[in-house]
Design a protein that fits this description.
By secondary structure, this protein is of the alpha+beta class. The chain folds into two domains: about 80 residues, no CATH class; about 210 residues, Fumarylacetoacetase-like, C-terminal domain (Fumarylacetoacetate hydrolase, domain 2, Alpha-Beta Complex), CATH 3.90.850.10. The strands form three sheets. Strands 1, 2, 3, 4, 5, 6, 7, 8, 11, 12, 14 and 17 form a twelve-stranded mixed sheet that branches. The radius of gyration is 19 Å and the shape is globular.
Length: about 300
């Protein structure tokens, strides 16, 4: 698989970020180096570009990736602590979210939602429960989750999320990762009550409120993560461990997700696939602070406030 990653190799970790006034940069150590301006100058991006357009250029035009590599290997930049990181993509074509993809999470939802912990006999049947999250719900690192007045119970979920780089249609599991641009963290904030217990087909609403999808802190290009099924996930809630998990515990892995989805529909550049939450989800309350880390990607913090 290594030869498939050739266009990404840069000598340094490639962390593509979105910051300040919709600028594209690369994070190197404690610095952010802008490369969006260089893409504009080279005619590879337009003034007022979106991160979807930047991802498309980087994933599908070697000249654009070379500019990002040169920036990462160059000098200059500004302190990471001085910039406002934004969601690394705010306008994905589709954000596909896997449902109930960890056995331990399925078990904890028996009590939490009154759902039956049915045995997964056919993985495709489970993957047919993919749902879509709204792009209007997206926030970024350091932002605030707003708990709606109607909500009686809202949980956090913290998940590995893949960013599609190359269009995928009817690909095999062996080919799947060739279509991934990179990885980020997705927080799938989820209202359980009302509209949860005893109801069906409510996920899009319960998980689609404004601020209910947090992405960040950046996108790590796929060459930096040799195996997406070998990553640890940890979440601190108000400084206390709430979730300790590992992506190897997924029922359906990312390769299976891409195979299944691409055999049903076309996955496009900038589409997101978030792979489901492990066990350890916990209720959010006004004043909470969340700090989540996925190995080899990074960490991000979120705040929680009641709707006024």
């Amino acid at each position: 698989m290594r030869e498939k990653f050739a266009i990404f190799r840069s000598g340094v970790d490639m962390k593509i970020c979105h910051y300040n006034h919709n600028q594209a940069g690369v994070v190197v150590d404690d610095k952010v180096i802008n490369f969006g301006d260089a893409l504009i100058k080279a005619g590879l991006a337009r003034q007022g570009y979106t991160m979807l357009e930047i991802i498309d250029a980087l994933a599908n035009n070697p000249a654009a990736m070379q500019i990002a590599r040169d920036a990462a290997n160059g000098s200059g930049g500004v302190a990471l602590s001085s910039v406002k990181l934004l969601a690394p993509i705010q306008n994905p074509g589709t954000l596909w979210a896997a449902a109930a993809n960890y056995g331990a999470h399925r078990a904890e939802m028996v009590d939490r939602m009154g759902s039956a912990n049915k045995q997964v006999v056919n993985k495709d049947d489970l993957m047919a429960e993919f749902f879509i999250k709204t792009s209007s719900s997206i926030i970024g690192p350091g932002d605030t989750i707003i708990l709606p007045k109607i909500s009686k119970l809202v949980d956090f979920e913290c998940e590995l999320c893949a960013v599609i780089g190359k269009k995928a249609r009817k690909v095999t599991e062996a080919q799947a990762l060739e279509h991934v641009f990179g990885y980020t963290i997705c927080w799938d904030i989820s209202q359980r009550d009302p509209w949860g217990k005893g109801m069906h087909n409510t996920r899009n609403i319960r998980k689609g409120f404004d601020t209910f999808t947090a992405l960040g802190p950046w996108i790590v290009t796929r060459d930096e993560i040799e195996e997406p099924q070998n990553l640890s996930i940890t979440v601190l809630q108000n400084g206390t461990e709430a979730m300790i998990a590992h992506t190897s515990d997924m029922i359906c892995g990312l390769r299976e997700h891409i195979r299944f989805l691409s055999n049903c529909l076309t996955l496009r550049t900038g589409d997101l696939i978030t792979t489901g939450t492990p066990a350890g989800v916990s209720q959010l309350r006004d004043g909470d602070r969340l700090y989540g880390t996925i190995e080899k990607i990074g960490s991000m913090e979120l705040f929680v406030k009641d709707e006024k």
